[in-house]
Amino acid sequence: MSTGPASPAARPIQLKEIEQRLQARLQPTRLEVIDESASHAGHAGANAQGFGSHFRVRIASPAFAGKSRVACHRLVYDAMQNFIDQGLHALAIEIVDSSLPP
After folding, report:
1. Which of 33, 69, 83, 90 gives 54 a disulfide partner, CB atoms 3.0 to 4.6 angstroms apart?
2. Domain 15-95 class?
C-alpha cells in the first residue's frame, strides 16, 4: 500500500523507464512519451533538474478495446503507480486511435 507521493525533490523519472513499463504492461500499438517538465519550471511539483516530473503519454493499445476512456486511463495510471509513488508529479494521458498515422 502506498503512503503517498514522494516529495518533488525525489529522483527524476527517466522517459525510458516509463516507455518500458507501458510496453510491458499494455503492449501498445502506438506509444509516445514526452517529458514536459521543462515547461513547468517554477511550478508546484517541478524539480530542480528540469526533467522527470511532468509527462505526457499518447498511447493506443489492444487492452483498451471496448473500454471507456476512464477505464483506459485507469489502466495507464495502474501501470504508472510505481512512478507516481516515486514523485512523478503530473501525467497527461491521451488515448489515441491506433489506426491513425502518428
Report:
1. 90
2. alpha beta
